[in-house]
Design a protein that fits this description.
The protein is 36% helix and 17% strand. It is α/β, with parallel strands linked by helices and 223 residues long. The strands form three sheets. The protein has a five-stranded mixed beta sheet. A two-stranded antiparallel ribbon has the order 1-2.
Length: 223
């Protein structure tokens, strides 16, 4: 038996090397980074989605918008054209989760401050309270970089429809005000085609870690 293996020693060495190469190739194929999912309304908690689109299974994108930022500048979808961006909903007088969310959004801003491919967008759910002046004060307090991050206010119906029909991000408590909104802790990752590619807990550092990693993954789609 030993003589047999000795006779075919070279053969078995070559076979071992070839096997290792094949296994490595298969391992590399299996390790290929998967693209991020594209979220459709039918895949999201129904409490966050307007009833008119809850069964939509494809082609969902963020609608055109026209809002005003902390500097009184009109902000539209054109300002985010060909950009990846992170969106959320908040209000400046919130004393519960909003300060934590804003701190986490600020963290994203600082980590990606030199990345011109990524921007941030925070929508007020109390636009009557959050005037341009109020947003400006809040922006200064929270260290908002105007070139990177827009805090926006505007018509409440418009913001409501964006929240419920586009970003799938707020709840309504049904108190009689058809445009009443209860924002969540969700951050939404939006791609260059205005599609939702992820939801993240804006109060959780580990969830924001995942968001930052997913931005890197998403950017690879455009290389």
């Amino acid at each position: 038996m030993f003589a047999f293996f000795k006779q075919f020693k070279l053969f078995f060495i070559v076979l071992l090397i070839v096997s290792i190469v094949i296994i490595s190739i298969f391992y590399s194929i299996l390790k290929v980074e998967q693209p991020l999912p594209i979220y459709q309304p039918n895949r999201v908690d129904v409490s966050l989605v307007d009833s008119t689109i809850r069964h939509q299974k494809k082609y969902h994108t963020i609608a055109d918008f026209k809002l005003v930022n902390q500097n009184g500048k009109t902000i539209t979808q054109e300002d985010y054209k060909d950009k990846i961006y992170v969106a959320d909903f908040f209000f400046t007088t919130c004393q519960t989760i909003c300060p934590v969310m804003t701190d986490q959004m600020h963290r994203i801003q600082e980590e990606l401050i030199n990345d011109n491919e990524v921007m941030l967008l925070s929508h007020s759910v109390t636009p009557k309270i959050d005037s341009v002046e109020q947003l400006k004060r809040y922006a200064k307090l929270k260290g908002v970089n105007d070139k990177k991050w827009n805090l926006v206010t505007g018509d409440k119906k418009h913001i409501y429809e964006l929240a419920r029909k586009s970003y799938l991000a707020v709840k309504t408590n049904g108190n009689g005000d058809q445009y009443d909104m209860i924002h969540t802790e969700n951050f939404m990752l939006i791609d260059k085609k205005r599609q939702i590619r992820g939801f993240y807990n804006g109060t959780s550092s580990s969830s924001i870690d995942s968001l930052l990693q997913d931005i890197k993954t998403l950017k690879k789609e455009y290389k």
